[in-house]
Amino acid sequence: MNAKTKGIWYGIIACVTWGTIWPIGKWINNNYNVDPFYFAALRFLIAGLAAWVFLAVKKDKAFWLTLKNHWGLAVVLGFFGMFGMGSLVFLSIKHTTIVNSALLMNSNALFIIFFSLFIGEKITPVKIIAVVTGLLGCYLIINNGFVFNMMGSETMKGDLMAVGASICWAAYTVIGKAKVKNVDSTHLSSLNFIFGALMIFILIFFMKAPVADAFSPFPFLGIAYIGVVATAYGFTIWYYALESVEAGVLGLFQFIVPLMTAVFGVFLFNEKFTIYTFIGMVLILVGVAIASKTSTK
Questions:
Q1: Which of the 8 DSSP states describes residue 85?
Q2: Number of domains the chain contains
Q3: What count of Cα atoms within 13 Å lies in the side-chain half-sphere of residue 174?
């Protein structure tokens, strides 16, 4: 198996593991009283510890050098990519369908185009078309129709949180692209996980959020799975995939996530999949495909 084929498989596996986050999160939310902030904090703390164990087994002493030289960058990335994105994703699951949450979260490529202005990339007419097309898709999903009716939407609060998570992930991606040079991605990811988790725990302390069922056996096992498999393992093999597959091509694989989530949502949670959700999904997919093709060129 050549490097590119292996990279494609790594990308697919990573996306499949990410596709399980929403249904597990929804199941825990429906059956147990777990605060979304505890969910996010434990997810990234477990992911960070798993990454540290992996590095310790490899006897990778260069990790401490990365911590010394890039801790400030790790704090910034941890804020956007883990604290911001992670918290908003699990909050959105509580207030909207997992179909909407996953779709809107994975529209982040559209916001990446906007943020890339700040690192010197040009906005071309094709990119504008991509953004407008994708944002129209987001509008249809949140509004559930063409005629403006957002204020009457039962899922608007959760939908907007998912968009916020998408914006945070876009900021994380662009900052990483601009600042990360010759830094081991596994080292930086593990630091991002830990710093992000600590920020969420600090927020929990000041909010005095109740622990409730966060440490009950079944919810904790679900969160541990998301932390180790979907986060630590998923992020790591995604970075390996990026070494041999173009980012624009690999980015399209992310739509495995909302497609899987749609299936889980409809068949396991009896969620509605309306014609507007479908049209919105297609428009977001078209917008991301145009953006990814442009970025590949």
A1: H
A2: 1
A3: 20
Distance, in Å, from the CA atom of 27 to the CA atom of 21, rounded to the nearest integer, reads 10
Interatomic CA distance for residues 237 and 15, integer angstroms: 10
Phi, psi of 269 (to 5 degrees): -120, 5
For Cα atoms 52, 168, 202, give the angle at the middle one, nearest 5 degrees: 55
Q: How far is CA 214 from CA 33, 35, 105, 293, in A?
A: 7, 7, 24, 42
- Compute the chain's Rg from CA coordinates: 19
Residue 42 and residue 32: Cα distance in Å, rounded? 15
Give the residue among 142, 168, 110, 126 at the shortest CA–CA distance from 288.
110
End-to-end CA separation in angstroms for the chain: 26
> pLDDT category, 43, cuts 50, 70, 90?
very high
CA 197 – CA 201 distance, rounded (Å): 6
| Residue 108 structure tokens | 């982040």
CA distance linking residue 72 with residue 80, whole number of Å: 13
Instruction: Please tell me the distance from the alpha carbon of residue 124 to that of residue 112, in angstroms, as a whole number.
Output: 14
DSSP per residue over 246-290, as a string?
Answer: -HHHHHHGGGHHHHHHHHHHHHHH-----HHHHHHHHHHHHHHHH
pTM above 0.90? no
Range of the domain at 139: 3-296
Tens digits of per-residue pLDDT, 230-259?
Answer: 999 988 888 778 777 766 666 667 778 888
